[in-house]
Structures are given as structure tokens and as C-alpha cells.
Amino acid sequence: MGRPGVFLEDLTWDEAAPRLAGDPLIVLPVGAAAKEHGPHLPLGTDRLLAEYLASQLAERVPAVILPTLTYGYYPAFVEFPGSTHLEAATFGRVARDIVLSVHRHGPRRFLVLNTGVSTTPVLEVVARDLNRLHRLLVGVTRIEDLGARALEGLLTQPAGSHADEYETSLMLAIAPDAVRRDRLVREIGERPRVRGLIAPAAFRRAPGPGHSETGVYGDATLATRDKGERIIAALVPALVEAAEYVRTAPLE
Question: pTM for the full model?
């Protein structure tokens, strides 16, 4: 038996036509192909993760997988060479136009397989507007929440969110040859937090809020392949559950 999902880019237009008929689930992976991830992970880390998770979905869920959106709203990393960034309005417009271009051929259900954090609020606004204006169901994943309960106690770093124990463990599991194992670092800069307040800070190489010499926030030296495989074992079922909800939820 073949896999239930299909990648749109593998089809011809006349093969795509019946796949897009009948209100299928459309998956849009979002993952940066050029965003710093410290001295030990490649700039394309988010893309590798997005495409790995998309392939796992394709094995389990009848869905049409779109090509990965590899540019996005990543303002925190622009001081590091190689990092790319689209302003929020531009990124939101691109994501919206991709969805509407596919909707033109029938589909009304979309899952944005989002591997970023700063991209989330922009994509959530896009999802709400597409529902309000076009009656589309657009789900947006929060990578930091998927499977989170199953991961309690797995990570031991005192703090982290980027190129850290979590992300590095994932990469050791899905793309081990891409990890520069001799360059793993621990950097946990001071990040004051006030309850009830959001005060974003960029990863800045100069002293000040968000200061980071390496572009890391966390302890990558604690990462292991085993932890990455356990993360994946929690992530994939949670992602499948999200996809099945969008695929089967009632629509107007």
C-alpha cells in the first residue's frame, strides 16, 4: 500500500486536479531555510524539521503537502550572517496568498505546519482572517506545544528556546550529519521576565537585552539522539491529531 498523503510538487496539473477536489486537507510546511541556529546547527534547521514532519504526516494522513515556505518573520536573528527575514505584513500576505491560490481549486481545509515561534502570531492572524473573509478552516501548529505533556522531565537545561537541548536533540535524530558535534555550546543569557508582560528581545551580539555571542539560548551540550527520538515520538502523534481535526471538523 502507498502512503495516504501526496506532495503537490510531485504531480502534474492534471494529476493534481482530482487530488484537490473533494475538500482534502492541504498542509503548508513553514520552516526557515536561512536562519541562524548557533555554531553547531545549519541555517536550514527549521526547513529540515518542517519537511521531516511533513513526510511523517504524509505517511499517516490523507493530505496534499505543499512546497515548504522557507522565508518568514524572523526579526530576532537578523544580526547573524545568513539569517533572512520578511516583515510581518509581507510574510502574512505571502502565506495568505498561497492558501487562496490553492483554495481557488476547491480546498477549504488547511494546516500550517509551523516550525517557528515568531511566525506564530502572524499566521494566527492570517488564519482568523481567512476564516472570517473566506470561510476557510486554517489550523496553525505551535511547535513548542505539540506533544509537550509527554516530554515533561526529558530535558534538563535550566532554560532554552533556540538551538538548545531540544532543537539539537531533534536534529541529532532526523539529520545527524548536519550537526557540528564538536561545536555544541551552552549559552543561557539573562532574560528578565515580568508576569503578564511580553517584551520581545532580539538575539543581539552587542551587550544588552537578548545578548548572545553564539546565537544560542539554552544548553546544546545536553542534546542526545535518544532525546530527539523521544521528542519525535511525542511530536508526530500530536501533529497527526491536529491534522485529523482540521481534516474532519465540520465546515459551514
Answer: 0.96
